Predict the 3D structure of the following.
Amino acid sequence: MRPDVTTHPADNPHSSPAPEGSGAGRLHPITLVPGDWIGPETCRIAQEVLDAAGARIDWDEQVLNADTVDQVAASCRRNGVALCARVDASPTPGRVPPTIALRKALRTWAAVRPVRPLPHTGARFPDLDIFVVRETSEDIYAGYEHEVTDGVYEAIKITTEAACERIARWAYHVATRHGRRKVTIVHKSNIMKQSDGLFLRTAQRVGAEHPDIETEEVIVDALCMKLVRWPQNFDVLLMGNLFGDIVSDLVSGLAGGITAATTLSYGDGVALFSNPHGKAPDLVGRNLANPLPMIQAASYMMRHLGETDIHERLQRAMAQVLRDGVRTPDLGGSHTSTQVRDAIIARL
């Protein structure tokens, strides 16, 4: 049976995520999901750094697992913003991982990854500066799979014009807000002529409304080749769910990996800030986990809330700490998590 797409969440191409605020100095209610493994340790350090930077936050700490998704979603809706560490996604028959379930409950539809390397983090391209904008409500990840016959399965790719327009408008919003000159539409319409053809045509139509921003299109496999050779030629990358999942990690790898992998997930009235780093069971309780990925997520959260000064100070402090050689073992250093924390605080 084909899915009923009439109730798909992409029902309003002009809907907007939680607004980026101008609330400097205000008390901000924020949902905190410390997650599992090293998440509680790195989240605690991020909280301490934010406190030292002068952020005024009323933390609403939540435990996310398969049984608490609705409770955590209610907290996120109430506060409008959440800071999330990695959560155990061990396979559970008949259930999607808790993080995915939370995003579905919140109807998030955009994931933005701002990729800018920190110094001395192993970036192949130290001057890289790219935004990856990914549609997250549909595509092949919509979850419509079934068994046709023994040994044969079918997965259905969902593409709606409304969702294509909505994510395209958000990509051009990102480009405009951050002074970017070009949006690259990423697709595979040479093969998927109907579904990706719709994505390409819709994004090009939206792009025509922004004559001050260059719009180009590129096939996804060609993009990957160009990214590993000339990533500096790109500015804002716009793509669907599957391609965005792959390309965002590729770009982060070019920029040093986990320290350039912060993901900003947006739904109507809610924004989640997270980093995929965090499993590392061998580091739990040893005070050796790299706290920078979590601090990066917290920094972008502050910018979203209008605390631009805190965001910029955090960025400068992290860069200075790395230049001064204060690094955890994963970055080739010998410092502990709390030593990195103290060094950042001292440079605020």
